[in-house]
Every structure is written in C-alpha cells, then in structure tokens.
Amino acid sequence: MKQIGKEELERGSGAEGKRSLVAVGGKVYDVTSSKLWRNGLHVKTHKAGRDLSLAIKAAPHGTEVLDRFEQVGVLAEEEAAEEEKVAKPPLLVEKLLEQHPHPISVHFPIALSIVAALFMALFLVLRKDSFETFTLYCIVLATLAAPVSISTGLLSWIYNYSRVWTRIYRVKTALSIVLVILQISALVIRLVIVSGPDLSSPVYWVYAVLALAMAPTVMALGYFGGKITFPS
C-alpha cells in the first residue's frame, strides 16, 4: 500500500476544496465524504492533515468509526517511527483508559462539592442543623472521590495527552491541589477542632468559608476540563 509522508498528509487538510486525510495507528484514511469533516474540521476541534492517533484515544468513540472510510495509504516509515516513541500504557491501564474513567469519576467531587456549598449556604440562612450535617457528609464523600478523579486524570494526561504541560494542565493541577487543601482543612476543622455547628465561633466560620469555596473551585476545574475536550 502507498506510503504517505508528513508533507503529503498535511496537504490533505480539507481546506480550499482539498481532500481530508487523517492518520490513525499508522493508517491514512480519506474522510472527505463525511459530513462530520466538512472543510477538514471535526467537531470544531480536530483538523485533517494530521496524525490523530493520540487524539482518538481521548475521543468518545474508537477507531472502528474509520472502518467506513477508504484507507488510502500508510504513514511513511519515518512518521510511523515517530509515533512509536509515544509512551504506551500497560495493558491494564490501556483497558481502563478505554472506559474513559476520568470523565466519569470527575462528576462525583464536582457534584458533591457544589451540593455541600449549597447546603452550607442554606444552613447559614435558615439555621437548620440537618443542612449542616448534610454538608459534612457531602464533603466527606467529595474528599474520598477526589483521589480517584485526580489519579484517572493523571493517567489520561500521561498516556492520552503525552504529558503536554500547557497552561490548561497547569491551571487544572493548581486547582486540584487547592480543592484537596480545602477539603482536608474543612474536615480537620469540623471533625477535630469544632464538635458541631457553632456560628459564634470564628473557627467555625473558617470552616463555612472553606465549604463555600469548594463550589467555585470545582466549577473552574470543570470549565478547564471542558476546554481540553472541547477547545474553542
């Protein structure tokens, strides 16, 4: 089968009436006929004329979607050799990443942290102890869920995104650290320093502020996570 080099692949950008070529796993496909690749652009994110072997690992679908398109060649040996340099995960990790664990696990600390902040706000307004108790439960569960979310995100960053250290990943890392600090600090105050809801205590108000601060923190994490999946 015809070998296609980097320059020829780049000419298949889909722009100005050109055909749209994409490379995945060393194979080159012509996706010009797809309505999802109009003008060489897919979901406003991925551009034709490139090797998308890494990008497809983070996609909500697998390589089977390419079976409907004509394979017009294979990547030239030098390009294929470059692809092989990318770190490949152990088999167990690879199978785990195929299930997209990070988008699944990240919902739990985000939702629980927002609900915790909401019920803390309700407690401060309505003074109902049950709301304060529910806040504590949510923080405990969010704290337990955070390591799973962070570890799956780390695996995805290493193997799906080749450890690219861009601003978005730096911000997400910083926000993750902030969230864990907020969670642990809140639990230490609530479970060790104060024995219950005491609005006359300045220390309890620190706990309340920490609980409220979790909501904007996880919302920012979700926003930047969305920027990775759906870049504008």
Descriptive account of the structure:
This protein is an alpha/beta fold and 232 residues long. The chain folds into 2 domains: 3-84, Cytochrome b5-like heme/steroid binding domain (Flavocytochrome B2, Chain A, domain 1, Roll), CATH 3.10.120; 91-229. 57% of the residues lie in helices and 9% in strands. The chain has helices at 6-11, 77-84, 91-98, 101-105, 107-126, 129-159, 167-193, 202-229, and strands spanning 3-4, 21-24, 27-30, 41-42, 46-47, 50-51, 70-75. It has a 5-stranded mixed sheet with strand order 1-7-3-2-6. Strands 4-5 form a two-stranded antiparallel ribbon. The protein is elongated.
Poorly predicted tracts of residues = none
What are the secondary-structure elements, in order, as H or E?
Answer: EHEEEEEEHHHHHHH
Principal-axes shape call: elongated
Strand content: 5-15%
Helix/strand layout:
Layout: E1 3-4, H1 6-11, E2 21-24, E3 27-30, E4 41-42, E5 46-47, E6 50-51, E7 70-75, H2 77-84, H3 91-98, H4 101-105, H5 107-126, H6 129-159, H7 167-193, H8 202-229
Parallel strand pairs: 1-7, 2-6
Antiparallel strand pairs: 2-3, 3-7, 4-5
Features:
alpha/beta; 2 domains; 9% strand; five-stranded mixed sheet; 232 residues; 7 strands; Flavocytochrome B2, Chain A, domain 1
What's the quick description here?
With 232 residues, the chain is an alpha/beta fold. The chain is 57% helix and 9% strand. It has eight helices and seven strands.
